[in-house]
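> agent: user asked for a holo structure of the chain below bound to zinc ion. Plan: (1) validate sequence alphabet, (2) canonicalize SMILES, (3) run complex prediction with ligand conditioning, (4) return tokens. Step 1... ok. Step 2... ok. Step 3 dispatched.
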Amino acid sequence: MQHWSAPLGADRRVRVVVTDRSDGDLSINGDPHDLAVRRLAITDQPWLWLRQVHGAEVLMVRPDDDIAGLVGTCADAAVTSRSDLVLCAQSADCATIALWSPEGVVAAVHAGWRGLQAGVVGATAASMRAAGATELMAFTGPSIGPECYEFGGAELDSMVAAFDASIVARTRSGAVGLDVRAALAIELLRHDIDRVGGVDSCTACEADHFWSHRARVDQERQALLCWIES
Ligand SMILES: [Zn+2]
């Protein structure tokens, strides 16, 4: 796994972790006991994992909410100001994003092409600002690179319409491809979010470290985690 952190005001930090194959499969469809062991090896805080549906639904976790009752909610992003839980997003090729503000509002987002087009980044930013966030910063997880992501037809046309032609790429084999990172960069700019770090690895190229559904039909998932350390 890779660790990263940044200050939140004077006395707290946001912690971001990007897992890889060596941390084990974090797909929510795995054996619950195995998952619990793997999660505990990464952090002993309760994990708020979501059933990701490639949409723009955002779960806001409020001070009095029972975490156990929210685990498994259908959503692609979670937002909180609490420091007693871990937010996470699982993926094989889709982008994942940790977001935070100096006020201590944090979020974890699952953002593949469908989620980006559905507006999950903007919906998350709006939820964070409604919770008191001012300046928003981002750390992005690994995703499939444009050189490996063959894409086309009506789906590509819809992405060009939603973003611009800069998201059209060429794969290593010369086919038309999609640059998910370019679409993500446009979304971050649109919603006034400053990307200050990330893991730029390609999940398809780096087979030793990451799972890829597109490249290898892997069913396993890595995760991006985000939480407040106080
Ligand atoms: Zn690649």
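> agent: step 4 complete. Summary for user: Residues 145, 147-148, 202, 204-205 surround zinc ion (CB under 6 Å). Helices lie at 32-42, 67-70, 113-118, 120-130, 153-162, 180-190, 213-216.
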